[in-house]
Amino acid sequence: MQTNFKGKYKERVGRQLKVVRPDATDDDVERLLQDGGDSNIFKQQLLQERSTQAAKNALADIQDKHRDIIRLEQSIVELHQLFVDMAVLVETQGEMLDQIEYSVQQAHQYVDRGVKQLEKAKESQKKSRKRMCCLLCCFIIILFIVIGVVFGGLKGAKIV
After folding, report:
1. What are the start-end ranges of the H helices in the chain?
2. Name one GO molecular function term (predicted).
3. What is the pLDDT of residues 97-131, one digit of tens each?
4. Which of 82, 137, 155, 157 has a CA 20 to 30 Å removed from the CA of 67?
5. What is the radius of gyration, based on Cα positions, of the chain?
6. Cβ neighbours of residue 160 under 8 Å, at least 6 residues apart?
């Protein structure tokens, strides 16, 4: 009876071991029986599965964090590129502003020169008008003298 019990017990432990570890051999069953660890098979497997599940969960968490870090890195690279583009735009617009400022200064100088030339032209025009008035007055005086001489000479010729 004891042999029968040992045989059934061995079969049961073998089946349990095959459930837990499908690749287990008869030698593994014998070793397990000699160590007296039959009741611990499922406990050990359960603990292993728990630690395996915990490891899988930890791995999944690590992979999620890794993906987040990769996305963060990509965002930082994009942000860096935006700052580089912004710097290029600022530099380009700075050069453009410098060119505009130079053009405004040149235009201001041209306007100043133009104002001075207009003032000179205005003075020249005043002088020219004065000359024309003087010449016109001289011409009128000469005309009156000529008319006076011509008519004075004609009057004297009639009297005689």
Report:
1. 2-20, 26-35, 40-159
2. SNARE binding
3. 999 999 999 999 999 999 999 999 999 999 999 99
4. 82
5. 60
6. none
Alpha-carbon distances, residue 133 vs 123, 127, 136, 139 (angstroms): 15, 10, 5, 10
Give domain limits for the chain: 39-159
Whole-angstrom CA distances from 64 to 38, 52, 61, 160 are: 39, 18, 5, 139
Cβ count within 10 A of residue 30: 13
Tokens of residue 117, six digits: 């030339």
Of 28, 34, 3, whose CA–CA distance to 16 is shortest?
Answer: 28
| Among the listed residues 94, 98, 95, 117, the one whose alpha carbon sits nearest the alpha carbon of residue 106 | 98
pTM above the 0.70 mark? no
